[in-house]
Specification:
This protein is rod-shaped. The chain contains one helix and eleven strands; from the N terminus they run βββββββββαββ. It starts with 6 loop residues before the first strand and ends in a 43-residue tail after the last strand. A five-stranded mixed β-sheet has the order 1-9-8-3-4, with no helix packed on it. Strands 2-7-6-5 form a four-stranded antiparallel β-sheet, with no helix packed on it. Strands 10-11 form a two-stranded parallel sheet. The relative contact order is 0.12. With about 250 residues, it is an alpha+beta fold.
Length: about 250
Amino acid sequence: LQGQAPEAKRRREGGTLYIQCPYAARLEDSDTKYWCRMTDQRCQELVQTRYGYRQQSRDGKITIEDDTTAKTVSITMTELKAEQSGTYWCAYYSSGYFVPLRSISLNVFKGPKSLLFPSGPAGTCPALNANTFMILSLVLLTLLILALVTSVILGVKHYKLLGRTGRREAEDASDRPEGTAQPGSTGRRESSRDDSKDPAYINLDVQSPASPEDPLYCNVEPSQAHRNPQSVEYAVIAFNQPPRNDR
């Protein structure tokens, strides 16, 4: 590995680095495994482990764990800072030197922290903290209130629209002329003009042919009678005689 370029890893400040280093072909359980940082051509030890133990750094932000069954060393670095950028080794100590099992080039860059999904070990699901949960609750509550207000406004507008439509239909029905009377019903004549000045007419629509001998009636309500007794109304009733069949 010493002649190979280290693996590049990028993390945001406050993030987490998690890597695994297999050692099955080289080491025994009793051999000490190290996590160290390259400084001035030497590897500065950060944490170490052996015999399957789990160890942490003094500040608790670096953890190393030896899985003797899988023959793998796992390293976790949390709350990363920009000054921690550099080259790191998973290594073991042999003949006075650190021999790398895996070499990592870590680049920690500044930037806003991820609100919902901070970086963590592979296969893990980071838990939401209390502040994040509170923010999410407020956002969801605000959206729910907006949805309710919108529904109420739309319902009121729809109700008013139905009311205006009903009144318009009623006004249209009252404005329709009622000058045509059907047999068997009472025909009404209403006029906005003064009956004493202009003549008014009532049309009688007979659906079936009538005989000249059949009586016809037209009922006039007292409210429709002329106040001036000298006024005269004329009614003209005409029938079209059906053709006769002499055969």
